Amino acid sequence: MSRQLSMIRDVDRHKDGTVTIGCWLHNKRSSGKIQFLQLRDGSGFIQAVVVKSEVAPEVWEAAGKLTQESSLYVTGTVREDSRSKSGYELTVTGVEIIQISSDYPITPKEHGVDYLMDHRHLWIRSPRQRAILVIRAQIIRAIQQFFDERGFHLVDPPILTPSSCEGTTNLFHTKYFDEDAYLTQSGQLYMEAAAMALGRVYSFGPTFRAEKSKTRRHLIEFWMIEPEMAFVTHEENLEIQEQFVSSIVQSVLAHCRRELEVLERDTSKLEKIQAPFPRITYDEAVEFLQKNGHEFEWGEDFGAPHETAIAEQYETPVFITCYPTEIKAFYMKPDPDRPEVVLCADMIAPEGYGEIIGGSQRIDDPELMEERFAQHELSKEAYQWYMDLRKYGSVPHSGFGLGLERTVAWICGLDHVRETIPFPRLLYRLYP
């Protein structure tokens, strides 16, 4: 039998009208002659009230049978209710059970993290996890909208590659028939090729790092957004990045207020995220750390404690620019006035969330790129196609990469990135 269903998020359109909702029972309580059903349908939550004296006996009986996560169709009248978080309540006139759930493993009591991760396929039904995933989806929409409105083209680089983007060894190896292949850790080099064809491009896809890390900031499989832009310099690159991040945060504030409330996120901190962002050089960052009790030498890379100490000085993200050439990737363009540093920047999120963007102007001089290949002992055969980009119409160009999960963690105010993706892949977790 076909039926016209409404969504919980749209009940405000049906004030004082009758709707039918396909849903699950999140929770239930009873005062004897009244049953209060907490319902969810993926789009939101609503309380439905079943009054014994106002419904048929079979409706009251069906409501009484419902257990946590049972599935059902509920018909009722939409009533305005200022006490409800959604502003509305459902006065039930009909209940049709689809399935009675028994022994649902995630109860309202406290569960350990490992237990919840083992039941991640069910944990994502909870209000908190749903809120995070809704915000993640809004961030993705905001990202696509930002680039689409500015004339960028979405390009999909390969996931299987014959070599590493940054010359690292933290790659997942596989066989590509009779050849060696790796799961991508970045689509950047391919995006540079796409930028030479389409001008301004971005990719949005999964990347993989075989790092044996267990920190709260790291995932084995995560999603990256990687724009590349022809005829764009280092300074222009920074301006685009700060506009980009500002627009993402403001979009979440505009569309996900309820979800941020569920997470108890301090939105006053997010409201301050407006471009432009402060900038400090690597030199200034080193000087600050040394003055504030950190043992740190020029030429080292920053760790999480260093990034946190620097970020605590600001209420918005901060750029750290011009890192030493020796600790950055082979493709980054040296500063013409000071070749021991490169025209790059990391964007450090506030509140201790660390680097969310890394970017740079890329080397466009073919001779310098040849030198870099020799210094990093890279295979010319494997990278010949990349060298061709400097051989045939080389231009100044820049790009960056934003890690989606770290960005979600920061905007949501989460303690660990494992909650930012539906099914996280961690060092010791490949299930479910």
CATH topology-level fold name of the largest domain: BirA Bifunctional Protein, domain 2
DSSP helix fraction: 25-40%
Strand content: 25-35%
Cα distance spanning the termini: 35 Å
Rg over CA atoms:
26 Å
Question: What CATH architecture of the largest domain would you give?
Answer: 2-Layer Sandwich
Roughly what is the average pLDDT, rounded to an integer?
96
Poorly predicted residue ranges = none
Q: How would you describe this structure to a colleague?
A:
With 432 residues, the protein is of the alpha+beta class. The protein folds into 2 domains: 8-99, OB fold (Dihydrolipoamide Acetyltransferase, E2P), CATH 2.40.50; 120-419, Bira Bifunctional Protein, Domain 2 (BirA Bifunctional Protein, domain 2, 2-Layer Sandwich), CATH 3.30.930. It contains 13 helices and 18 strands. It has helices spanning 57-65, 113-118, 120-123, 127-149, 188-198, 234-255, 257-262, 267-270, 282-291, 304-311, 366-375, 380-391, 404-412, and strands at 18-30, 34-40, 45-51, 71-80, 88-99, 153-154, 160-161, 173-176, 179-183, 200-208, 221-230, 279-281, 318-321, 334-335, 338-342, 344-349, 354-361, 397-403. The strands form 4 sheets. Strands 6-10-11-18-17-16-13-12 form an 8-stranded mixed β-sheet. The longest helix is centred in the first third of the chain and has 23 residues, at 127-149. The relative contact order is 0.11.
